[in-house]
């Protein structure tokens, strides 16, 4: 990589443009096996091509900070999956670039808007797609508050913090895709040659992953009844609030409310688990009957009882379904979706908001951990795994609990309780209170 030559070309072409488009080949360079990648910086009709190796990472990162990431040089930078570039640079330098120019990651924004298509291949295509996106005013707030911190800092820190696989004696890294799932959750993929997938850790994987460094243990914090809390916040259902304030087990409470009998064994609790959200999310009598092995008449009666038990939440869900029948519907955070089967809007409206609320807390947690006494290992749906030094475990416990249980800024008034576990291994975690 001849940065002097590239800088000369950059100086020539940037005089007439205040925006550029940056893309990578491959889209997600694999730093775990020291892969080389190509960076295309497209300005007008010009395509500046840089081949970047691990040995170039520090110099390349410094060059980006003084050129395409500098607002004095560029007003706007359009990108595609910039998070992977930040992670690559951070892995080899220990630092993340700090752009001051306006960053627009087309992949993230389009996924948020429900648009799934391949990346732009040139500057003109990027500008054309960004122009269409700019006409839709629903995404900038969440993009600025959630997506930019995730892609510029939070996820690069997590992706470059490996866990140790003691079975094959090597570090393994997670990979995340922002807005990777249709309803707004992040997706985990096995993009790296040395990789584990946090969303799909079976018993065999949990048994062999350890924190890096001596004297650490795992701390897991999961939101209790995350989607119930979000549904209650969205619908203002007083009965759901009463349940949440009571700190009871949702599945047992559901079983007892719908059957008028005690939930005194795990089989009954499992039935309660198969009732609340499947029915709230639109499961009909025929499907429910097959799921819990009862007659359709009994299933219909259970659905009726759920409606009566939580009438405000049920009415709110039905209202969302009616809106979806009329066309495009937006969740609280602004994600637009159109459903051929209107009942799917029920699930979407709750899960999209829950996903963003969890991501907000993930950002705050990563910023609060110092990286030495404690560091973020991974995020798994409604919870996080932190690696903490044993001597700092109490302090980490209170930091995590305080941040995760504090009221949301993105969803004002929403707060959720967490259950915290500690353990030396992922398959040996125990509920803990300090």
Describe the 3D structure.
This protein has 434 residues and is of the alpha+beta class. Among the domains are: 3-136, no CATH class; 227-352, DNA polymerase, domain 1 (Orthogonal Bundle). 45% of the residues lie in helices and 17% in strands. The protein has a 5-stranded mixed beta sheet, sandwiched between helices. Strand 14 and strand 15 form a beta hairpin. Helix 8 (226-235) packs antiparallel against helix 9 (238-246) and helix 10 (250-259) crosses helix 14.
Mean pLDDT: 93
What's the total helix number? 17
Numbering strands along the chain, what is their spatial order in the largest sheet? Answer: 3-2-1-4-5
Distance N to C terminus: 53 Å
Low-pLDDT ranges: none
Please state roughly what percent of the residues sit in beta strands, choosing from under 5%, 5-15%, 15-25%, 25-35%, 35-45% or over 45%: 15-25%
The class by helix and strand makeup works out as alpha+beta
Give the oligomeric state. Answer: single chain
Provide the gyration radius in Å: 24 Å
How many strands appear in the DSSP assignment? 17
> Largest sheet at a glance?
5 strands, mixed
Helical content class: 40-55%
Gross morphology: globular
Outline the secondary-structure elements.
Elements: H1 3-13, E1 19-25, E2 37-43, E3 46-52, H2 57-66, E4 76-79, H3 82-93, E5 102-105, H4 106-112, H5 123-134, H6 140-159, E6 163-165, E7 170-172, E8 176-177, E9 187-188, H7 203-206, E10 209-210, E11 216-223, H8 226-235, H9 238-246, H10 250-259, H11 266-273, H12 276-280, H13 285-292, H14 296-309, H15 311-326, E12 329-330, E13 336-337, H16 344-368, E14 374-380, E15 383-389, H17 393-405, E16 418-423, E17 430-431
Parallel strand pairs: 1-4, 4-5
Antiparallel strand pairs: 1-2, 2-3, 6-7, 6-10, 8-9, 11-15, 11-16, 12-13, 14-15, 16-17
Helix pairs in contact: 2-3, 3-6, 6-16, 8-9, 8-15, 8-16, 10-11, 10-14, 13-14, 14-15, 15-16, 16-17
């Amino acid at each position: 990589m001849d940065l002097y030559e590239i800088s000369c070309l950059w100086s020539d072409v940037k005089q007439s443009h205040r925006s550029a488009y940056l893309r990578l080949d491959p889209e997600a360079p694999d730093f775990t096996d020291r892969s080389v990648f190509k960076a295309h910086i497209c300005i007008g009709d010009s395509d500046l091509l840089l081949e970047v190796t691990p040995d170039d990472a520090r110099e390349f990162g410094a060059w980006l900070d003084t050129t395409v990431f500098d607002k004095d040089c560029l007003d706007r930078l359009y990108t595609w999956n910039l998070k992977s570039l930040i992670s690559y640079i951070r892995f080899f330098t220990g630092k993340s670039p700090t752009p001051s120019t306006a960053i627009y990651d087309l992949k993230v924004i389009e996924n948020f808007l429900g648009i799934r298509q391949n990346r732009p291949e040139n500057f003109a295509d990027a500008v054309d797609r960004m122009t269409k996106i700019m006409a839709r005013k629903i995404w900038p707030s969440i993009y600025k508050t959630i997506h930019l911190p995730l892609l510029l800092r939070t996820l690069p820190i997590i992706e470059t913090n490996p866990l140790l696989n003691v079975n094959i004696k090597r570090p393994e890294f997670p990979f995340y895709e922002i807005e990777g799932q249709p309803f707004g959750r992040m997706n985990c993929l096995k993009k790296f040659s040395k990789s584990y997938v946090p969303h799909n850790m079976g018993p065999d994987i949990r048994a062999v992953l350890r924190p890096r460094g001596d004297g650490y243990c795992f701390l897991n914090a999961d939101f209790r009844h995350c989607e119930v809390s979000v549904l209650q916040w969205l619908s203002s259902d007083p009965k759901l609030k009463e349940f949440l304030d009571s700190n009871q087990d949702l599945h047992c409470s559901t079983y007892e409310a719908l059957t008028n009998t005690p939930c005194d064994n795990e089989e009954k609790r499992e039935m309660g688990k198969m009732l609340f959200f499947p029915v709230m999310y639109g499961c009909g009598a025929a499907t429910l009957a097959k799921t819990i092995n009862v007659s359709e008449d009994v299933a219909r009666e259970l659905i009726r009882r759920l409606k009566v038990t939580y009438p405000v939440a049920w009415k709110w869900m039905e209202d969302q379904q009616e809106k979806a029948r009329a066309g495009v519907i937006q969740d609280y955070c602004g994600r637009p979706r159109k459903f051929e089967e209107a009942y799917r809007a029920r699930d979407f409206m709750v899960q999209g908001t829950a996903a963003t609320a969890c991501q907000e807390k993930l950002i705050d947690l990563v910023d609060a951990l110092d990286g030495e006494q404690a560091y973020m290992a991974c995020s798994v749906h409604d919870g996080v795994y932190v690696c903490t030094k044993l001597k700092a475990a109490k302090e980490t416990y209170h930091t995590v609990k305080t941040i995760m249980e504090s009221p949301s800024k993105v969803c004002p008034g929403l707060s959720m309780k967490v259950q915290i576990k500690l353990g030396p291994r992922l398959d040996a975690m125990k509920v803990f209170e300090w």
